[in-house]
Amino acid sequence: MKRFINTSIVVILLLGISCIALLSASVYTYSSLTSESLVADLRFSMIDDQHYLAKLRTGDFCVEEQFQVIGDQWRLDAEFIKWKYWALALGLDSQYRLDRFEGRYRSTNEQNFRPILAHDLKKDTFFDIGRLSKSMGAFNFLIDATYGSSTFNDIDTTSVFYIYRTQTGLITRIKEDSMSLRRSQTGLVVEVTHPCGGLPSYWERFSVWVDDKLMTRFDL
What is the domain range of residue 57? Predict the structure, then answer.
């Protein structure tokens, strides 16, 4: 009997740790929201009329992703979460994650009838912390509010778009693409505008590993 109780306690502890890890994996898809900081940079090259190749860097800025965009403008969406006051008191900052990237048209008529193309940026997890809190209704003890924020601008192949997140949402600052200009004049030039990030914590790596295993196991 004693052995059964001890085994049960171990199983319960392991299940508890697994659940916490899965919730953490969802939280780690968001980034802390403290002061204004750079979250993405964006460049464009033209493929055809109203058809562009977008080069987007996010996260630790070590990897450049490429997306085809249709339209005259681009738009980047993010999801923000604000924790309950007790969580803020414990030092858990409000957080955000990039959600979607797409092209758009200046003309609403074109927006309604021309082709559009959108790209999902968020990473799916076994538990989605935002959806979970909404499904809990009055028993939600985690999140005070969730909301979205977007920034958009005209597509310009001679500019670099720097997207910042602030306490209130996303904003864009635009600079001339000096790298492209120097490339055309002197050959290939590699310009570093943001250093790559360091390794994630052991707990973050463990949480993501558990989440990936379950996502694979249940083919989600």
Answer: 31-194
Tokens 């290939």, located at residue: 188
pLDDT value of residue 108 = 95
Q: What is the pTM of this model?
A: 0.69
pLDDT of residue 54: 98
What mean pLDDT is predicted for residues 12-31?
60
> Cα(185)–Cα(86) distance, rounded to whole angstroms?
56
Q: What's the domain count of the chain?
A: 1
Residues 6 or more apart whose Cβ sits within 8 Å of residue 191: 178, 179
In this predicted structure, the answer to whether residue 180 has a pLDDT above a threshold of 70 is: no
The CA distance from 100 to 56, in Å, is 12
Gap between the Cα atoms of 175 and 213, Å rounded: 42
Domain annotation covers residue 52: yes
Segment (H or E) for 133 = helix 129-135
Q: Is residue 54 part of a domain?
A: yes
